[in-house]
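Write out the 3D structure for:
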Amino acid sequence: MKHLALALTLICYFNHGYSQRIAPAPAQSVPLVITGGTIHIGNGQVIENGAVAFDNGKITYVGAAANAPAAGATIIDAKSKHVYPGLIAANTYLGLSEIEAVRATNDYNEVGDYNPGTRSLTAYNTDSKVIPTLRSNGILLAQVAPQGGIISGTSSIMQLDGWNWEDAAYLADDGVHLNWPSFFRFKFEDLTASVTVNEDYEKQVQQIRSYFQQAQQYNLQATHAERNINFEALKGTFTKSNTIFIHTNYVREIMNAVQFAKDFGMRMVLVGGRDAYQCTALLKENDIPVILGEVHSLPAGDDEKIDLPYRTATMLQQAGILYSLSISGFWQVRNLPFMAGTTVAYGVSKEDALKSITSNTAKILGIDGRTGTLETGKDANIIISTGDLLDMKSSNIERAFIQGRDISLDNAQKQLNETYKQKYNIQ
């Protein structure tokens, strides 16, 4: 009864506090030109007093403001403002969870260990009240990935403004997510943490190999006596039409995961990669990009420097590793641009930090032909900020466009702010 009461309380609060639905924006109807601002292309290039023109959801011009095609277009004055490509969040379960304490609102973890056929796409909730908070900080696209088990399932890339999951789908079924076994076991007893070697590690790795071998053989057969949708979901990983996202952190695990991907001829992306800075030669040799886990975290070992997680991006940058930044979970992802800003304080240039949440992420996820930079022919995924996007103190997203649509930047927090300003007559 206690848990039921808590759930009902949270649901009632949630429904009361977030009652106003923010409707998706209509399709772009007139040509638009953003002019006079500082244009951050997303590939390291910056254009002062530049302009970006777009029509029918596609960018038609990027360059000097003086040469922008203004005839028949609506002009957006961006003088003294910054224009960026829309940010992309990788490895999140946004839209699959709403209130973590209420099981009925969580749909990111399927029962069982091997679930490659589980698709995050069809479970994605466009009505999530968390989504508008991300848009307010410039995040316009997200890779929505299932969690848990050994093979969690298949992720999809969603644009964060749609009536339903069909509207929101930007790239369906981009890859399968594999949680590599940990070489260590972590125990917490009597408020004390201890670390021991996982004696079952080799056995667990062999079980994964065996499962993939069975799936590979299944997909080589023309006909089957009995259909296996899980094995079928892995077909693209063997042909490299799909990516295998392997989640792991420590050196030995990374080395074993890379060898596994090589043995099966897979296109691998390392997710997490806490120790990736120690494996740069291996990663570079095998052309493996990294979706780096939280920068804002503590070091894993007692003998590691306190700022090591902050400096890891710099070390990957210097080693020539293609990497992007991520924040696990869903509501925390709103801080993605500020985490990128932290890497600037530890050696990454501002434009390279921007790449780690725009063009680099687009390359890793296979959507760089459509988005990630402000270039002619790409989708008009654009944000306008009155301050530095990567600086929490000055960032202020004023306008945002997804495929040319002028989306709402309202959210539940802003609604509550206005409600209580009125209640207490605050100007």
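The radius of gyration is 23 Å.
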